[in-house]
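Regression report. Comparing outputs from two consecutive submissions.

Submission 1:
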Amino acid sequence: MYQKIKLLLLKVYTKYQINKRGITLILNNSILTHTLFSKSTKNNNQVIKVLPNSTIQYCDFILRGKNSFINIGNNSNIHNVQFWIEDTNNSIIIGNEVTIEGGHFAVTGHNKKITIGNDCMISNNVTIRTGDSHAILQNGIKINNEKDVIIGNNVWIGNNYIKRGSCW
């Protein structure tokens, strides 16, 4: 069973922290609109931190793992993104002055992360994943292990791009 929290508009001018159903949301001079948060009722320690002057619109945050952390940097604009975290000790770190226009960012496996540097622009329909969410076996050995995805500073990613950490 999953709990869902829908947030239609939250504009914060000072530091604000809310803890609802196991998700800690930390905001500081930021705007969230039309955003959905869902989590498994059995998991815990899930934190979403949005730094000053950032705007989050029409996003879904799906947190199904323990010790999940999402950090969105200063002056960032995030629209139409589904953030998905499974398993344990995983994170999504987005730098300062990042614009994302739509996509799916998923962290699977244990102790994995997606990191996006500063001053990045990510277009629409972009998928970034640490793994496939299923095993591919060769002679009984998993060959598509999850891997961190790191995108540096000043990177532009165009429409319909797909990046998997488990690519061979």
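Submission 2:
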Amino acid sequence: MSDKYLETLDELKKIVDDRRKEGYLIATTNGRFAPFHLGQGYMLEAAKLLIENQSEEKSKQGGILIVLLNSDYSVQKLNGLSKHCPPQEERAGTLALLKCVDYITPFDEVTPLKYLEELKPDMHIKGRGKSTLQQRIDEEIKILGNWGGQHEVLSLLEGFSTARILERFQNMK
């Protein structure tokens, strides 16, 4: 597995603390990223650009983008595992190939709230899809507000959503 992949929150927290001391801004995003598609790649690139631009404006060293990846256990709790959701190691491996992603760590909870609380990112970024629930966004905004973190929701590429991809799979039967 790539050196971008960190198994535990403790490993990630140490790196985040070190990077923050070096002058980097920290951004997180989360999801299952399955099946991975162009819209998600675009969102991750846009998220990295957003944190890099913020870092320039604040005269910081740079921006770090962390993907909090729903673990297999988390995905099963949310949706049940399906043939369209590869194991977390494969999903993490795909994400690790992207230059815009600095670190990836799995989480077992339904939401990344515990990880946000521990990491205290400067920014949490989401793609606006059908599954983006306003209640979850409100919970994230509330937690981020405890330390002045920002919450950003990016538009997805038209025609590229997980729901649309899965619909195409269904129609292929």
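Expected: both submissions complete independently.
Actual: both completed, but the second showed a warning that disappeared on reload.
Relevant detail on submission 2: The first helix runs from residue 9 to 21.
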